[in-house]
Structures are given as C-alpha cells and as structure tokens.
Amino acid sequence: MARFAIGDIQGCALELRALVKRIGFAPDRDRLWFVGDLVNRGPHSLEVLRYVRSLADNAVVVLGNHDLHLIALALGSRSSERTGDTLAEILAAPDRDALIEWLTQRPLAHLDAEHGDLMIHAGLVPQWSAATAAGLAREVETVLREQPRMLLDAMYGDRPDRWSDDLAGADRLRFIVNALTRMRVCTADGTIDLKMKGPPQRARAPFRPWFEHRRASRATRVIFGHWSALGLVQAHGVIGLDTGCVWGGELTAVDLDAHEPPVSVPCSEYRRLESD
Fold first, then answer.
1. Which residues sit opposite 234 in a β-bridge?
2. Rg of the chain's alpha carbons, rounded to an integer?
3. What does pTM read for this prediction?
4. Could you give the 3-state DSSP secondary structure of residue 34?
C-alpha cells in the first residue's frame, strides 16, 4: 500500500484527477492523504468534494480553513459568502447535507504513529508535540460534531494569539483552530501572527516559519499545506505541499513511503490575488 499526500486542491478538480492518474493511484491498495482546503477559490469545489468522499477509507482528509468556512456557511453560522468564494454550487447541491455531514466528520489532525507522521493543514506552535496536537484537535472535533454552531460561532477571530495550557472555553478552541488551519509564522513562546501572508522573508522578527523553531513535534514528520507563497518544502522534518494550484501554480503529491521526487501537474490560473 502506498500513501500519497496531496496539497491544497481548492476546487481544482481537473488537476486533481490528472495528478491521481499520474501517480498511478490504485484504490484497491493505495491511500490518498489530503492536507485540507479541498474547496473554494477554484471552479469545481462540488466535484472535488464528491470525488474525495467517494474514495471512502482510501482518503484521509484533514480540515482546512476553507473547509471550515464552507461548514459555517452551510450550517448558518456565517450568513453570507466572502468575496472570491466559489461555494454556491455546493450549497445548492441536492446532496449538500450528506457532503457537509461527511466533511464535519473529518479531523483537524491525523496522527499515524506507526509511520511517525502527522498531517495538519497549517501549523503547530513549538510547545505542541505530535500527540499533544492530535489531542487538542480531538477537543475541537468533538465540539464540531456534537455542538457545531457553538464552535462555528466562536471560531472567527485572531485572539488569543499566544498558546497557554490554561486557555479554556471558546478562547482555547479558537486558538487550536487558528494554529492548525491558519498559522504560518510564530515565535518561540507560541505567539502566532495570523496577518502575515506572502513569502517567509516577510515575517517580522521574532516571528519565523513555525517549522523552523525548536519544536516538541520534531521527532514526527509533519505534512501540511496552506502556504502557497512558501511552495514545496522538504526540510526541517516537514513536508509542505501547497504549491499554489489555484493561483496558477501546480498541484503536488508526495509518496510518503518511497524516496521518490514529488509529482506535480500544472494548473490553470483561476485566481490572481492571494487569499487566506
């Protein structure tokens, strides 16, 4: 069985199918890992969602910020779409409820202890080990599945911006969501800057890309996406897979179990402006 990790798709269904074909994915033996942001900004979010759901146990998916935004819209926590959203087709689809229910059941972190891998969408603060991050993700997942409106109503916002084990309630849930689905840079003490976009050189000291700090998670390989301006990263014990497909870059896959070069397919330039 091969495990292929695939970067942010964001509704680019044609490129996804081309990439799956190119890597020789066999649904009877292989598994695809998706780093989140299956939907939004690209033209075919509904097709992507239906396809990945159809893979059943052959797909491992973690939620990204755009996936959570779709859930919030569908469940009425957000009253309107944002500029640039391409989610209307999903929200009007006859199988909308089934798709949203399936998406709501996806985790925010996937820890494969056997292989020593952790998949998230965005980042980890230095204080979190892989096991800690997976446990914190489960806290959010439980609320999302049992009291979704409570989580979604409290999810939006940039505060608190520093991790503490003493965080509780909505502040705790919001920080966990922000780190796992939105963060790019942080400081050594676990302070995050959610406004920073663009290449890592734009980070203002003492903020640095989260994976460059001395991390409690350093013994685990971390697979992530979210940062299109960063591009492909295979260093510091991480694999970064957002190669900017929806911005006219590429969609990239990595075989997690073989020392093979990444495989990428070119993408049409669906969007011209970077979003969060």
1. 239
2. 17
3. 0.96
4. strand
